[in-house]
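Quick one, tokens below. Sequence please?
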């Protein structure tokens, strides 16, 4: 079975993810029987909300919120976006495009184009403006839900330990 057929058969696993799995030698192209069985299992897990929720618990709440609000953003894009969003309980700090580019060079060892950093910076600014509320509301509601969930889990663990 080729990857395009697998992407349609084993939803919600996208073609891009299948190609990456082949690139990382987790799967073969074309897919053999073992690969198809593994994808069938993976597809089953990702269509069940309970499993997805448990798998995502391993990520910090801010990262989970960003991944849900911006599913097409990768690690680098999420880093850039979070660089321009204020940290909770701290005052906003101005960050230049050059500072972000330097941090990417230092921490990720990559050269990232300034125009892409500016595009992501604009998304962050739009989120922070009250007049452009949809994206901001989504992010804020997701982070509020995450905080509430973490607080509920903390309360449950405290009750169990008493």
């Amino acid at each position: 079975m080729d990857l395009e057929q697998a992407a349609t058969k084993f939803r919600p696993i996208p073609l891009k993810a299948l190609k990456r799995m082949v690139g990382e030698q987790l799967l073969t192209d074309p897919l053999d029987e073992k690969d198809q069985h593994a994808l069938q299992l993976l597809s089953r897990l990702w269509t069940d909300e309970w499993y997805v929720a448990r798998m995502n618990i391993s990520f910090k709440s801010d990262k989970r919120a960003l991944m849900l609000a911006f599913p097409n953003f990768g690690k680098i894009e999420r880093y850039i976006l979070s660089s321009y969003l204020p940290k909770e309980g701290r005052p906003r700090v101005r960050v230049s495009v050059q500072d972000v580019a330097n941090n990417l060079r230092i921490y990720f060892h990559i050269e990232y184009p300034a125009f892409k950093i500016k595009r992501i910076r604009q998304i962050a600014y739009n989120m922070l403006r009250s007049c452009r509320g949809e994206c901001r509301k989504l992010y804020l509601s997701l982070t509020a839900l995450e905080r509430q969930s973490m607080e509920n889990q903390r309360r449950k663990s405290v009750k169990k330990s008493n």
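The radius of gyration is 20 Å. The chain is about 70% helix and 0% strand.
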